[in-house]
């Protein structure tokens, strides 16, 4: 058993979390700060440094041999930079270099948050034991990552598996990314809610217009809410089937807020998948909910750091 710990950062538009993770994916110390997402880049970096300072104050810090970062993207792992859409102060920000400096030269591995969650689900979650998997985060956006041939497959810049921007509707709405009819435009939480409202769904007396509220309405049988989730499920099925046909995955794991909708999403998704994943080699494809929950980003950043550094080992990565 490899006793060293891995330091991990999970950086998003809302919070910056840090942890020390052991070789079995268990968190031994944790801390977090709010992300000053509307501030300048240096202010955001100060919050990262505060999280690192908290971790460094732990008596366990000396056992950390490597640090993994999972960040909202886009990221560029080849350059060590991040440009998170929801943190405008960071554009091409040299995060790897800055974190290495702040930790006194600890080796740093950077990945996108979709790849981090994939690493976590493959190491300790729903994709464990599968050599070829797609893991997705369906929430405000739609991201993902791939495991191919038993190994994490982040791609040259760390963005492989970004299923949210596969086009599944040739004549669909323009996407902010510049393309048209992307999975994200049909299946993200805000777009599920937007479509339900546009088609005549009426929120309850509390005025909640979130995708979770649409899911509740769909559970109660509201036909417009049901239809919006069916449309999202169809888009996800088309994207998942395209991915499976291209690289022969046998499981797709869905996490994020929309993934928590349960049967409202998974029943129409499995039905639609049968319509799209039709070739013999993709017919055994299964779709399951994610298991790792809110710690997935931290555990995944640690898993990826272990998986991507040849000089470190951990049980089952």
Automatic annotation (TrEMBL):
InterPro entries documented for this protein: ATPase_NBD, ROK, ROK_cs
UniProt organism field: Streptomyces seoulensis
The organism's place on the tree of life at top rank: Bacteria
Similarity remark: Belongs to the ROK (NagC/XylR) family.
Record protein name field: ROK family protein
């Amino acid at each position: 058993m490899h006793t060293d710990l891995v330091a991990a950062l999970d950086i998003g538009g809302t919070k910056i979390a840090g942890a020390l993770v052991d070789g079995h994916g268990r968190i031994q110390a944790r801390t977090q700060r709010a992300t000053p997402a509307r501030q300048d880049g240096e202010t955001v970096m100060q919050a990262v440094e505060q999280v690192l300072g908290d971790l460094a104050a732990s008596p366990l810090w000396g056992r950390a041999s490597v640090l993994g970062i999972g960040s909202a993207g886009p990221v560029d792992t080849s350059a060590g930079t991040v440009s998170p859409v929801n943190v405008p102060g960071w554009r091409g920000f040299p995060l790897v270099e800055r974190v290495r400096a702040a930790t006194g030269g600890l080796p740093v591995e950077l990945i996108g948050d979709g790849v981090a969650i994939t690493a976590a689900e493959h190491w300790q979650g729903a994709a464990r034991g599968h050599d070829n998997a797609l893991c997705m985060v369906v929430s405000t956006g739609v991201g993902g990552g791939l495991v191919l041939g038993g190994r994490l497959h982040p791609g040259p810049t760390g963005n492989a598996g970004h299923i949210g921007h596969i086009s599944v509707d040739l004549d669909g709405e323009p996407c902010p990314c510049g393309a048209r009819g992307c999975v994200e435009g049909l299946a993200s939480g805000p777009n599920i809610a937007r479509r339900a409202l546009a088609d005549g769904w009426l929120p309850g007396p509390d005025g909640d217009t979130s995708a979770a509220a649409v899911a509740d309405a769909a559970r109660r049988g509201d036909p417009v809410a049901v239809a919006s989730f069916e449309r999202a499920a169809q888009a996800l099925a088309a994207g998942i089937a395209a991915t499976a046909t291209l690289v022969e995955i046998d499981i797709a794991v869905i996490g994020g807020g929309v993934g928590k909708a349960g049967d409202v999403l998974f029943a129409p998704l499995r039905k639609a998948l049968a319509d799209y994943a039709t070739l013999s080699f993709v017919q055994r494809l299964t779709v399951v909910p994610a298991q790792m929950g809110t710690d997935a980003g931290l555990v995944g950043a640690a898993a990826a750091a272990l998986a991507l550094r040849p000089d470190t080992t951990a049980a089952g990565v």
